[in-house]
Amino acid sequence: MNSCRSFKKVTHVIFDMDGVILDTETLYTKATQNILTEFGKTYSWAVKAQLMGLHSMESAKKLVEIYNLPITPEEYYSLAQKQYLELMPSCDLMPGACNLIKHLKLNGIPIAVGTSSSKESYELKTKHHKDLFCLFNHVVTGGSDPEVKKGKPNPDIFLVCASRFPDKPSPEKCLVFEDAPNGVKAALSAGMQAIMIPDENVPPELTKEAHVVIKCLDDAPLEKFGLPSLKK
């Protein structure tokens, strides 16, 4: 936890999806490595940390550039989509996600999802978790939403997400749950507070901007932000 941070009361909560609600990051890693293996390359965490939270095409462009692949970003994107179609429907919920989401819902806290995924990708990933995702007020799929002009680390996705709550809360009244450095940057740029649940492989220096860093959603210190304390 960043001891230099002060915490402000919030009224609304926004969740990133991949790596926060759904355990898709391991599947993304597997899909990426499957593709890179064809070109004799190895996917590293240093590279993955740069890509987390980006739109799929932005990620494809960076991967082709970093690994100097003999294909276009569009060709890489096509290969990746084939991998995702096979792998993503099997994704599980992240530990503590169901408990936290239901806790907030039961206590009348407005909740939403702001994901870089496209609408098509969102539907694929949430196929077996519809009962949980129906609890959200709304979902913003940044990969295909016309109002989201720029992806993370730009603030667009979270600002759009906040604007779609019926009461349109100001950014400082929103708390964001994120696992990616780019996502945390987006939340802060939007004027929101951020709780980060980083993968254990993310370097500590890339977690310092978050207001709070936790290992699991069960550890979320909601009371620091004026929200009902999570019962474990």
TrEMBL record:
The keyword Magnesium applies. Its EC number is 3.1.3.96. Keywords: Hydrolase, Magnesium, Metal-binding. It holds the Pfam family Hydrolase. The keyword Magnesium applies. It catalyses: psi-UMP + H2O = pseudouridine + phosphate. InterPro entries: Gpp1/Gpp2-like, HAD-like_sf, HAD-SF_hydro_IA, HAD_sf, PGP-like_dom2. Its cofactor is Mg(2+). GO terms for molecular function: metal ion binding; pseudouridine 5'-phosphatase activity. CDD domains: HAD_AtGPP-like (cd07529). It comes from the Eukaryota. Belongs to the HAD-like hydrolase superfamily. CbbY/CbbZ/Gph/YieH family. This is pseudouridine 5'-phosphatase. It comes from Phyllotreta striolata (Striped flea beetle).
